[in-house]
Structures are given as C-alpha cells and as structure tokens.
Amino acid sequence: MARLPLYYFNIVSHVGRTTQITEAQLQSIWSEIDRSIDSLQPPPKKMYNDGLFTFNNKLIVIPPGSVPDALKEIYKMPEGYNKRILLKLADMGTSLIPCEEHELLTAWQKNEAEIVRKEEAGETISAEEIGRQSLYLLTRNKVIGQVIAQTLSEDEAGVLFLGCVHNLKGMMANNYLTDTLGLNVIEMNPQVR
What we know:
Order of helices and strands: EHEHHEHHEHHE
Shape: globular
Strand order of the largest sheet: 3-2-4-1-5
Number of domains: 1
Helix content: 40-55%
Radius of gyration: 17 Å
Strand content: 5-15%
Distance between the termini: 33 Å
Mean pLDDT: 84
Low-confidence stretches: none
Structural class: alpha/beta
C-alpha cells in the first residue's frame, strides 16, 4: 500500500503587511479551503498548523474532542477562518499535532515585529535582521517537516496549513519532504502565495 497523502493548504490568516489581498479575496480563499476539506479522501487523521507550538519540544497529540479547548485556552487562537477549519476537522475526528518549537517561533515573531516596526518608521532594515529572519523561517520549516515525519504514519492521511511566509515549495524542490521525509504531499491551493 502506498503512503497516504499529506494535504497541504497555503493559508492567509488576515489582511496585512505580508499579503496584498482584500477581505473578499480572503473569504474566497477560506471558502475554497472549507469546500476542499469536505472532499478529502481519505479523510485526514492528523492536522498540523503553523504557529501552534509544542511544550518543552515534546511531541503531543491533541485528540479531536480536546481541540476546541486547546485552541481557546492554550493557544488563545482568535475566532476566524483558520480556527473554524481546525474545529471542523476536529469534528470530523482529526487530531491536532502542534508542530513548532516555542522558543524558535517566539524568536521569529520578535524579529518580525522589529522588522515591521522599522519598515513602518522608514528605518533601514539590516542584512543581519533579514538573514536572521530567513534562518528562523528555514529552521521552522525543517522542524515542522520533522514533526510531521515523526507523527504521521504511512497509513494515515494528514492535513497541513502553512502561512504564505513559509516556502513548502522550496522544501519540496530540494526533495526534503518527499525523499528525505518520505511524504506524499498534495498541494491543494497553489494559487495562494
């Protein structure tokens, strides 16, 4: 039997600095994701979403019935398109696997906030800051891929939601996900980037 797929969705959580889309386009993207979720065959057993971190870098599986409380109480995820999709998947019996290292995610967010602040103030952003941000992102991508490889068995389908700052295409181009990790990745909405 061939490895079941990891369905991959590019996501946009909000209209902001890193995206040039309107609220109507945002709604359209999430409506398409919602429709696609209903048609995934086989249905995913595990879901991964960037920005949701592990504790003490230990792999954990949040069972479907505990996902609503985890999103609300642990991750403080705001109401919105992304949360609705994750809750829908949990209702379908999909477990949530947090896939980011907390310290790394926090460092990336802090550096990103400083870059945004400088950009808005018209200040120069150093090559060091840009390089640091790129390194943080590359490392985040690697960690996410490793968590998926360690938790998604060959007989389970999974679903991955990554914001547009991630470059899964680059990870696939160097065969990191397919050859190194052995994943069968199906990109569901490549037009969103």
